[in-house]
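Long-time lurker. I teach an intro course on protein structure, and each term I like to show students one example going from raw sequence to a predicted 3D structure in token notation. This year I'd like something fresh instead of my usual example. Would anyone be willing to generate the tokens for the chain below so I can use it in lecture? Attribution to the forum is fine with me.
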Amino acid sequence: MSQQGPVLIVSAAARPPFAAVLDETKLFPVVVTDWSDAERAIEQVKPAAIIAAAEGVDFVTLSGLARRAAARAPYLPLIAVDPATTLPDTAIAFFQKPGLPDRLTARLNASLRVRALHATVMRRLVPPTPVALTDIDPVGEATALLIGRGGAYPTLSVALGERAGVVGALSIEAAAKHLSNRDIDGIVLAEGFTPRVMDAFLTVLTEDVRFRPLPVIVASAELTPRYELPNLEIVTAGPTRVADMVLPMIRQHAFEARLGRMLRAIDAKGLIDARTGLLTKAAFERDFATAVYQTADRGGALSVARFTFDNAQPRAQLDGARIISRLMRQTDFGAVHDDRSIVVAFAGTDLRNAQAITRRLASVMRHTQNGRRDVRSEPDVSVATLLPTDSAMSLLGRLFGTPERAAS
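-- Reply from a regular --
Happy to contribute to a lecture. Here you go:
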């Protein structure tokens, strides 16, 4: 990771043992301060990251440091080493393991990549617009994948579901489908699997660059964190404590994902909605009018679908938009409209094939939605195809006037 600034270590001891790990890498200037001088040190040193020796530190003290770090821009990571108290929402937990000194450097580098991404977005946003880690609401934006089938699974589901969106998987195979079909911001691997199965799953995550940065909490004492996963913690703790440890990491990953979408929107000159990854409504209307004209002029097929969600389920609509953005073909394009429905155009696609595509998309939404399955969060789907007499306006008019439930 390129040098962004010094690392500030906050500790009651003169120099905690983990400081030597950073010294040996020779990658970061390291400054050590005690808790009473932490605020002054942040202002004077202007660190790129803070690592706090949190063992024995109470929640009030750690929260004060977290608030000061969260007020800085670009993102100032706060890593709490061996915390015993409840974690503030923006403090990343790190638990030292004997014989694995490189883990702290890997965790630090992962957080610094988020800081570098934030700095890039701040530099390129015109006009400048504040964006901060604390803007992320895990309940409304982030998604945790909970994998397990033991007795702690229901309690973990509740503990996580109170603070973030959650999708559950009772098997590794189901978890793999969720990882392929939707954006996941963190994984909790609970009890119910043999060490061999857990080892195989973590090895797959390690080998896939898409999943390597994901926060992963393994609630088991049967493995050691020897995997090249920078945000992996293997702990033995109750459901509430596990949720407490993983939520700040999930928030950080959701922030990183939002920054990535914002950069893509900037690269597309504002034509992409940074929240969903789909086109903006204005860009969709322009491209749709062009597609209708070209299809009518050159021949071929063009179909369009509308996914409508219950307005009382805004999370279902956001998840649906991101799933469509992730799974639709490169030739397709879509946008969220003013009534919160999602409209997707399928180029070169007749009515029959468009209906098959929408059934598959609706099925993915049904089986990967957050929390308890609820018919209100399943989309109503309308499909229309271009007729010889159609204009862009008349085709959308027919689409918005013909709602029907998608076939299962």
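Some talking points for your students: Residues 137 and 388 are 46 Å apart (CA to CA). The mean pLDDT is 89.
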